[in-house]
Amino acid sequence: MNTHRYLAPAKINLFLRVLRKREDGYHDILSVMQPVSLFDEIVLGMEGGKGIFVECDNKSIPCDHTNLAYRAAEAFFKTAGISKKLSIKIKKNIPVAAGLGGGSSNAAAVLRALNEITSANMPIEGLINMAAGLGSDVPFFIVGKSCIARGRGELLEPIELTKLWYILINPGFAVSTRWVYQNLNLTKNKGHISMNISKVSLKDPVGIRQWQGFLANDLEEVTIGKHSEIKEIKDTLSAVGATGALMSGSGPTVFGIFPDKDKAEEAFGLLKGTFEQKRYKVFLAQGL
After folding, report:
1. Which residues of 185-195 are buried (b: 16+ CB within 10 A; e: fewer)?
2. Nearest to 95 by CA among 246, 227, 249
3. pLDDT of residue 197
4. Catalytic site residues?
5. Which of 28, 78, 182, 277 is the most buried if burial means most Cβ atoms within 10 Å?
6. Cα 182–Cα 58–Cα 287 angle in degrees, nearest 5
7. HEC letters along the chain
8. pTM reported for the whole predicted model
9. Are 212 and 175 in contact (CB under 8 A)?
10. Cα–Cα distance for residue pair 61/57, rounded to 1 Å
11. What whole-number distance in Å separates Cα of residue 233 and Cα of residue 246?
């Protein structure tokens, strides 16, 4: 069996407005998402035969047909008319149910990998359509670059963002995206992004204020209402020099923004020991 190794990145939401509830039960959103250099590792092995077999080093992850990577492989084989025996081994580095899109990224990595391994050569539009049937964030990881996301997340406009540095802090508990949306008061914001952040620098006070004014997440208030730790993490990141701090997605992971690697590493050194004593997970990552 030939094996193939792939990296599946996490994402952060620099901006997230929830605009309205749709008739299909989902919500229309407006978000700016960026992939970051925190990766799960996916190893695929394919040979003659039938069946999809998933292994994961995180015991909380199901390895049956409910696993999103399994569902991605199943959808790909059905669409491509291919029958193979496939093993999927997942090494989890991205925290689970953390607002970082780990499961969605795993699914996208499987779709992209199988398209390459099998030489099916499906166009990216076909992969995005498949991805949209798996989950709202999966199409973003198919595109694989910073995007403005609309609709329920599947309508994507690639943009160029500064490759900033981030400290990501996960407090070690899971948050249900479904619960957050069920407890959300919809924003009165009309969904307009009023500035082009791709051209804004963190090297001067004006740019810093613009970034701080841009950061927004409608889901944050709901999650903080149940988990005050999130606000404490934000305050701590600001205290060590983060330009801004925000919860990603439905949480509970919080990221702090730093203008360069040196400042990020200095803050990371100050925070890592303290938060790990609390059994929090602390990561240093760069935007991709």
Report:
1. eebeeeeeeee
2. 249
3. 59
4. 11, 137
5. 28
6. 70
7. CEEEEEEEEEEEEEEEEEEEECCCCCEEEEEEEEEEEEEEEEEEEEECCCEEEEEECCCCCCCCCCCHHHHHHHHHHHHHCCCCEEEEEEECCCCCCCCCCHHHHHHHHHHHHHHHHCCCCCCHHHHHHHHHCCCCCHHHHHHCCCEEEECCCCEEEECCCCCCEEEEEECCCCCCHHHHHHCCCCCCCCCCCCCCHHHCCCCCHHHHHHHHHHCEECCHHHHHHHCCHHHHHHHHHHHCCCCCEEECCCCCCEEEEECCHHHHHHHHHHHHHHHHHCCCEEEEEEEC
8. 0.91
9. no
10. 8
11. 9
Token reading at 229: 């730790």
Q: Are the C-beta atoms of residues 5 and 42 closer than 8 Å to each other? A: yes
Tell me how far apart the alpha carbons of residues 36 and 10 are, in angstroms, rounded to a whole number: 6
CB atoms within 10 A of CB 154: 20
Residue 67 token pair: 């696993």
Q: What is the pLDDT of residue 187?
A: 58
Cα 254 from Cα 267, distance rounded (Å): 14
State residue 195's pLDDT score: 45
- Please tell me whether the peptide bond between 252 and the residue prior to it is cis, using omega within 30 degrees of 0: yes
Q: Which residues of the chain have pLDDT under 50?
A: 195
Residue 195 tokens, joined = 């500035």
Amino acid occupying residue 136: S
Q: How far is it, in rounded angstroms, from Cα 6 to Cα 44?
A: 8
CA-nearest of 51, 65, 68 to 109 is: 68
Identity of the amino acid at 59: K
Write down the pLDDT at residue 185.
80
- Least Cα distance to 148 among 184, 191, 117, 203 occurs for 191
181 vs 12: CA distance, rounded Å: 18
